Write the structure tokens for this entry.
Amino acid sequence: MAGSDVRGQRLAALCLLGLTLFSYPVLAVFNVPETVAGIPLLYAYFFVAWGSLIALMALVAERPD
Amino acid sequence: MLGTSVVILVSFAYLGLLFAIAYYADQRADAGRSVIASPYIYSLSLAVYATAWTFYGSVGRAADNGVGFLPIYIGPTLMIALWWVVMRKIVRISKQNRITSLADFIASRYGKSALLGGMVTVIAVVGILPYISLQLKAVSSSFTTVLQYPEIAAPAALHVSLPQDTALYVALILAAFTILFGTRHLDAAEHHEGMVAAIAFESVVKLVAFLAVGAWVTWGLYNGFGDIFERTAADAQLKPMLTPFGGVGGDYSSWIWLTILSMLAIMFLPRQFQVTVIENKDEKHLRKAIWLFPLYMLAINVFVLPIAFGGLLHFPRGTADADAFVLTLPMSQKQELLALVVFIGGLSAATGMVIVETIALSTMVCNDLVMPVLLRLRGLGLNQRKDLTGLLLGIRRGAIVLILLLGYVYFKIAGEAYALVATGLISFAAVAQFAPAALGGIFWKGATRRGALAGLAAGFGVWFYTLLLPAFARSQWLPAGLLEHGPFGIEFLKPLALFGVSGLDQLTHAMIWSMVANIGAYVGVSLLHAPSAEEHRQASLFVDVFTWPGEARFWRGTASSPSLFNLLARFVGLKAASEAFRDYARAHGVERPEADADLVHFVEKQLAGVLGAASAHIMVASVVKEEALTLEEVRTMLDEASQIVVYSHRLEQKSQELERASQELREANARLTELDRMKDEFVSTVSHELRTPLTSIRSFTEILHDNPQLSLAERERFLGIVIKETERLTRLIGQVLDVSRLESGRVEWHESLIDMREVIEDTAASTSQLFRERNVRLERNLPSRVPKVRADLDRIVQVVVNLLSNAVKFIEPERGRVEIAVAEDHGFLRVDVRDNGPGISAEHQEIIFHKFRQAGDPLTGKPQGSGLGLYISRRIIEHSGGRIWVSSRLGDGACFSFTLPLAG
Amino acid sequence: MTTPRKVLIADDEPNIVTSLEFLMKGCDFEVRVARDGEEAMRLAQDFQPDLLLLDVMMPVCDGLEVCRRIRGNPATRGIRIVILTAHGRETDVARGLALGADAYITKPFSNKELVAKVRSLLQPAP
């Protein structure tokens, strides 16, 4: 199942991406008392990053074989 | 609205609804029309991960340190990304091996070890107790809180006596409910479709409830996200929370471990394993679940921060328990309906967890703990009992009750020690101990049972010591000195700072040490010994599940290395088989190949090269098969099979030989037919040649007989003809006989030394009559001394006579001249007979030596003679070692020559 | 007084021709001789015999071919043909008869038999 292998690899890559997105160095960047649209940057970042990651996972998972 | 009776009524109504849904789904499942065979239902059922912890505890945690609640959900999101590889493998393995629980999975992997299964069960039960107690706490607290309306009081230390303890009631009710849910009957594959449908429903309920209260707090109580955060920023005390990672090390390390912990929990919490793996109806559902489930988690966490900050802002510090913000906030604003909805949401979350978790645990207790023990106790004679259903169900029900009671006990003992999240994390840490054995098991074939046992024991031990014990100590059930000074005063072994490693938060500390102990023991002990045959077979089944087309059941037989070897040797030969086994042993790093799945597969592949895939499979299957086939039967089968192979080889050869033989036969037949035809022709020609003179003889003698009045001249003439024809006939008969004898080899050759001069003198004399008749001159050209030759005198005479009479026959009378000469020629004696007759055309020069062939000139009429003379001459000469030929030009005479080897 | 019957002898063996000639002349038939197949056909046309004694083995054109052609030629179709064969082969006989010969005689033959056959063939049918 080559398609599945590629999918598995891509998803694994997303996992690594997530780990980096939520790793200390990256988080430290956003760990400042700024706000965006009234929401503290860090929190906004969390949810945006998380949401984007999920969206990417959806794309990869649901791509037809 | 929020009166006791209302709340209780609504609660029971909700539970009743859940039960109805479950019942309906079960009915549909029995009818074969499952309602849960949808990836959406599947994904929702996975959301049982969000329990009262999520519902209440997240807000509490957020109120504590901002984003500290998020790793619990981000971790799983990241892990789920790996699910396509990892979880799909686990699901496939479980389906193929009919796995019924997490304990079953691990036990099965390590050689179906009952000990391991029991150990996993114990760890699971003990580990989950805090988690269950958390749910009980949440339900009873929320119940009490709601009932205190309109008072908002933190239901802190409510020490009530047993009968009035809400939690106990809750526990008992939940036990009853769970029993009704999950143990009405036994399902062979441990599928609980009703349960799955119910928890999918309650996932929706709790999400809706949480979103409702979240929305209300954000836009109802405040003016949106911005408003809440602004106000938080404005509050000096709360401001730091907006940038939660204050210190560099501390917060972040706990963040990391929390993430890792949740990544493992999403896999190894018994309830998660149950809904993700056991209850999975279709591997393909994983595709949707991979993003739907994280999406759910995102959704249910969106409002956590607003609610947390909202609550912090709203309630004066220390007056309200943050865990209860979701309830107390609406209550404070007289939002009774909303509060009720929230309460039901929380109830939903808690009951979902309890039901699934206890069912999963009770299955494990029954199948992997109690039954193995009971079956071993021969005194109970359980093996003889036909129907164990009643017993099994009884054990499970008992287990459910026991677990819930134990959960309650934990709640009483240590429930107040920590906040909800902290309590839950203790359970997370417990189930994380399964990760090395389980994940290692599906990727590493070298992992052994002993390794798994060692790892689990070590990890659990450390977990118990660093997490559970302190909980008891904090609740005064164990001396607090334990925490301060270590056991028996051994500072080095302080539960919260083992080996002097301090400064870490408790969870991180516990995780580090338990994982070190677990993984260390797991790997170390596994490497000490090679896996047993059984373990190796199971390991292959698990690790290689994607490379095999799924004939798992098949390998559950016993194969012996010798029998496999013999099987292979039979078809590839002893030498090749030995080599193959040696290579195999070397490749697998063992001394001698063990008769496990790998070896069987290997042998099968080798055989497939000889017998073809299908036959190889059958062959190997019969050797490996558990039931009935004795080695003798196998040998017989193999003998037959090998004989068939040998026969087919022979058949091949035979058919090739046959092909060749028939080809030869065809050729021989053709030759024979030809010879036959030639013989026919010969016979008919001979017969014709014989009859012709006979005809004359007969006719004329008859004429002579019937016609006495014939004149003398006529009489003489006719008699002359008769005489001539008789001679002709005699000659012909002689020649025919000669030919016949020559061809059949029945000629007697009398060799002697011949003087050719004499031969020629003799033949000249015998043919002189013929020459005189035709008035042809014969010249002799002979050297004085002629070397002798060795040959049959009579035959050579015959040849010379033949040549001379031929010469005379064709020559023009009167002017004809025949010259016969003898000469030496390179070791041969050559005799030439030259005439000045009409000559012989080139095309005739060879064929006149053939049977019945003559060079006839139509004008001169049919030649005399049979056409056999030259043929016989050639046979004679060639037999004597010489050659005979003619050289001639049409119109210029002919010269017949033959050679004979000189004697001596 | 009937017209003397004409007989054509076709054979390449001179001695046999001699004996046949003697026999036929002895029956008061007019006799012509052909030495090969070609001559036989020519003479059949010219001489217009009533009967042909035809040897199968002849140079140039063998007896069976002659038989076929003579039968095929309307000018000579009415000639009676007797095949003379020295072969024991039935095929010759069969083919000869199939090609239209009226009778066959195997060599060596009995003179009486030959003459009788010839006479019967030359008899007008009653």
The interface with chain C takes residues 684, 687-688, 691-700, 702-703, 706-707, 718, 721, 724-725, 856, 858, 861-862 of chain B (CB under 8 Å). Chain B is about 65% helix and 5% strand. Chain B has a mean pLDDT of 82. The domain at 4-432 of chain B is CATH 1.20.1730.10 (Sodium/glucose cotransporter).
